[in-house]
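pls design
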């Protein structure tokens, strides 16, 4: 009996597993090495309805929960963690609209986001405002019925392929969030898209810096509407980041799952000293530690996903714990998986090499692991 997931979630999990096995598993290395583009892979996911997992059915989506997003990210990320990252960015924009958008913003954008006709991206961080997001210098100037954005955003996942950006900007001293839509295929007026960043891992994703120069944005596109209060903006931002963190905890879990699967298989089939290396206790203990830690990470991650609806006052803490713990499990055990493979673990021919590179990045985005501890300790009043 599975007491962990409902029958509906178990059925969704089976569907996701089949989709990934049939469609993505074979292209994992091509995505990592740039032979298949993120855009093409996302188009495949869009056709299958997976860009609308968390969009309510009334707006044309699948009406799923954060647990559905997390399960999907978990399953996809053992093969293409970069796609998990691209999806997390898209789902974050959906979440911002769901929690804080006006009815006009929801009905205009959610059906298009659900179909993948619009791809979302979050443009929050800046070179000197990563952990300290309140230090952003991008500003929006509102004058009469016009608004324009100036500033430079760093490390925007989906930057060059997104058509709907959620941009964090200062309106005077207050934070504000803006929906910037870009005509598909058109060079965006007032937005300079930097070259795709070369990066250690998650290479299936595309990441760019974006510079806004007097970019005109409609007043209707202020998230939450013209009268939104500064504390509502901050709440919307933190909730969206908590969703994204939980989805990426799922991605880290998927990396650990795949590391376990591959290293157990390698241990069973590779021989030294006339026997399978799985007979060595040193190898058995690595696998046992990985198995235990990934189960612990899974419990924390699903707990965070459930808490958004069931224990909302704890969601911020659980999302931080889940992301930090699952990222550490992924980083430590993908390294141990490389060790089990011996020298072949360093070869581009083996998937564990990719898992190892992808896993490190999970400790950096959506708040570094150190910053998650800053959030976790808040609950303790210190
Ligand atoms: C692959 C990837 C994708 C990303 N995608 C996006 C995206 O789509 N949109 C977006 O807006 N941003 C994105 N980012 C940026 C990401 O959110 C930031 O990298 C992250 O918030 C950390 O900021 P930073 O890199 O500037 O590090 P910094 O904040 O400069 O931190 C540097 C070091 O100081 C430590 N540190 C900072 N503050 C504290 C503290 N209070 N206590 C203890 N230690 C501290 C950090 O842990 C880190 O070790 C992405 C980053 C990566 C790597």
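designed seq:
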């Amino acid at each position: 009996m599975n007491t962990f997931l409902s029958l509906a979630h178990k059925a969704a999990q089976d569907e996701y597993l089949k989709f990934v096995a049939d469609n993505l598993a074979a292209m994992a290395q091509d995505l990592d090495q740039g032979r298949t583009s993120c855009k093409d892979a996302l188009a495949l996911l869009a056709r299958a309805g997976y860009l609308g997992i968390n969009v309510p059915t009334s707006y044309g989506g699948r009406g799923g929960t954060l647990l559905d997003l997390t399960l999907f990210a978990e399953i996809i990320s053992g093969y293409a963690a970069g796609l998990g990252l691209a999806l997390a960015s898209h789902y974050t924009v959906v979440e911002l609209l769901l929690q804080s958008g006006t009815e006009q913003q929801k009905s205009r954008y959610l059906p298009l986001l659900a179909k993948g006709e619009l791809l979302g991206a979050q443009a929050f961080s800046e070179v000197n405002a990563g952990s300290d997001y309140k230090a952003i210098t991008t500003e929006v100037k509102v004058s009469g019925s016009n608004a324009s954005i100036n500033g430079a955003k760093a490390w925007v996942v989906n930057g060059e392929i997104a058509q709907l950006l959620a941009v964090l900007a200062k309106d005077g001293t207050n934070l504000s969030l803006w929906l910037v839509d870009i005509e598909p295929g058109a060079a965006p007026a007032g937005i300079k898209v930097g070259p795709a960043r070369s990066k250690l891992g998650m290479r299936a994703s595309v990441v760019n810096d974006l510079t806004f120069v007097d970019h005109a944005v409609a007043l209707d596109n202020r998230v939450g509407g013209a009268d939104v209060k500064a504390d509502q903006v901050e709440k919307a931002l933190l909730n969206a980041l908590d969703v994204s963190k939980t989805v990426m905890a799922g991605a880290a879990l998927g990396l650990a799952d795949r590391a376990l699967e591959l290293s157990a298989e390698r241990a069973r089939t590779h021989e030294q000293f006339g026997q399978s290396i799985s007979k060595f206790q040193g190898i058995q203990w690595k696998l046992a530690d990985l198995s235990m830690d990934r189960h612990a990470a899974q419990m924390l991650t699903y707990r965070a996903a459930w808490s958004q609806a069931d224990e909302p006052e704890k969601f911020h803490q659980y999302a931080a714990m889940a992301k930090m713990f699952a990222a550490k499990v992924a980083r430590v055990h993908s390294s141990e998986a490389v060790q089990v493979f011996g020298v072949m673990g360093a070869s581009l021919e083996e998937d564990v090499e990719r898992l190892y590179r992808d896993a490190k990045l999970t400790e950096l985005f959506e708040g570094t692991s150190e910053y998650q501890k800053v959030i976790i300790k808040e609950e303790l009043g210190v």
